[in-house]
User: Fold this.
Amino acid sequence: MSKRFKIILSPIPLLALALLILPTHSMATNKNDTPVTLNIAFEEYDLQNGLHVILHQDNTVPVVVTSVMYHVGSKNETPDRTGFAHFFEHLLFEGTKNIKRGEWDKIVDENGGMSNANTSNDRTYYYLVFPSNNLELSLWMEADRMRNAVIDQVGVDTQREVIKEEKRYNIDNMPYGNMFTALQKNLFTKHPYNWSTIGSMEHLDKAKLSDFKEFYKKFYVPNNATLVIAGNINPSQTKEWVNKYFGSIPAGKPVVQPNIQEEPITTAAEYEATDRNIELPAYMFAYRIPSENEKELYTLDMIASHLGSGKSNVLYKKLINTGNALEFAVMNERLEDYSIFLYYALPMGEGSKESVEKAFDDEIRQLQNNLISEKEYQKLQNQIEMNFINSISSMEKIAESLATYRVLYGNTNLINEVVKKYQSVTREDIQAAAQKHLNPNQRITIKYLPR
Assistant:
């Protein structure tokens, strides 16, 4: 049965990647059998209306993934109309001029497929997975959604109630469900990352039907979209169908992405938020990292992995093994315009805000003052490489990765280059990034307390 799910920034315990069967790709290994290079072949081109098309042929699998990533997320909303990008993730399953309300999922199920979508701050992604003999059907459906989605009052009213229930269930009534909302609100003061992906229910209630129609007309256009077709395909036939169904869709006006800069954090600040669903407080220590220096972002990914991955790292021994914390996480949450380097912990027993803060700061100082050992460095490289391999371990993941690298990074071939970029990070780079970006005066602290 087809389902809807959302990507909404959330505390790390809610983020999990299922380990799926690895499809066949060209891969080189070193003497320790650690994957070091990939060669995922693809072809890309543009239609005259601006639609970017990426084809990945893998005839070893009996399925095809047809996906469209629109370069629109919550950051493209206005402060008085938040939640629109996520709302459309739901609304565009209501139907089209050619697919009646309630028929989308029925068509998918009857043809042995599955359908889903997700939303982030920066983009919205729709995908269909079918047996490969239904490729033409999937292209027709996605093209019809791009050209002919029905935006009417019935659909808007229906999805308003669906999203209100989702917010109640997944955020408002979920322990720690509003942690990341509190973080975004205080970490960003100018940039539209200031609000959550799910947005404000009050804004959605006040919005008129014309507001929704205008949003669709502005952002759901071929020149703001990337189409990825991956799996058991015949490229020449696929191109014919792409042109047949998408080629005549009119281009929209050019979409200009927001370009809003935040002032650097130079003085530490502390904020409070409360949650009626929790008994243990949580503490978040967050740094807002500019996105200009690509290598530093890979380096910060490695620092987060070094501090937060597995049970053998020092923070785990200091916090979990001693009973000072119920859980903790370190993550480098990459957004298109900024990166959020975040450490958070739930103290328990003898633990306190001061104890979990000290444990983290001690490890950061260690990185700033000393190079990590060669052994730790090699372990870190192995972790990063395997995490990346797992992130492209199904045809659906490959399709989404191709779209993401194209839309958010402007380089589809990063899917083949990213491991090398991590390999290029040296121990000295790790030390330098910690010294530059992870000082106490460059962060904010969120005290997330029981109400």
